[in-house]
Amino acid sequence: MNTQGTARDTTSPRRAGGQWTVFPEWSPDLLKARVYERILLDIILCALPPGSRLDEQDLVRRYDAGLAGVREALGRLALEGLVVRRARAGTTVATLDLLEVRQAVDARRLIEPHCAALAASNAGAEDIARLRAAFAGSEAAVRDRDATALVRMDQHFHEAIARASRNITLARILIPLQHKAARFWVWSMGDDSESALLEEIARHRAVVDAIADRDPERARAAVLRTLGAFSDDANRAVNAPAEALAVARTARSF
Q1: pLDDT in tens, 28-65
Q2: 53-54/90-93 β-pairing
Q3: Is residue 207 predicted with pLDDT exceeding 80?
Q4: Residue 243: other Cβ atoms inside 10 A
Q5: Following DSSP, what letter does each residue of 179-228 receive, concatenated?
Q6: What pTM does this model have?
């Protein structure tokens, strides 16, 4: 009897059409999901700056979307802590709270390595293909300092790890944590050299190799390496003088 195969079958979550979906109510095929992703990306990239007020009708025009879809997207972003909604005061983009970011990074260091280890046991061929495709074209994006492309790649990569874990509870926790941490990653990325960014991408690809090789412990360690430098940056930012951070924020460019 293949006990390993039996154990894997009994722990597999529900699938729909062969695709495992973390948020089935937010399928990428739905317009509201596409609106959500566009608003999310603009928040991460500071195209919608921290503290700015979000007028629903302006967002409808900006994203060529329906009012209902915009409202649902803002509701999801509010649950993730990326926007703040108050009665009669409207909706604003949440401030970039560096202490909260550090706490999010600490939580990711506990959860994401475990998700990667689970992925090494549970990922299917589609999961591994999705992970390998996440950073396709990254060298050109780094050369061109294309922050939008790099952020999108990073988001797709970490979401793919969450999916491949086949643990829907952990995935629902991890994905919003990644969104919150990504805001700081963009803020800190302006100082990174081209070689540093390429090394970071190589560390992410090492995670995929470990998952593809079905090596849980190597996958766990590889994820910790991708989070290590990020954690150091977050700790330095939290402990830096407020005046220095204010100057640094205004100097960021890609």
Answers
A1: 667 788 899 999 999 999 899 999 999 999 999 999 99
A2: antiparallel
A3: yes
A4: 8
A5: HHHHHHHHHHHTT--HHHHHHHHHHHHHHHHHHHTT-HHHHHHHHHHHHH
A6: 0.79
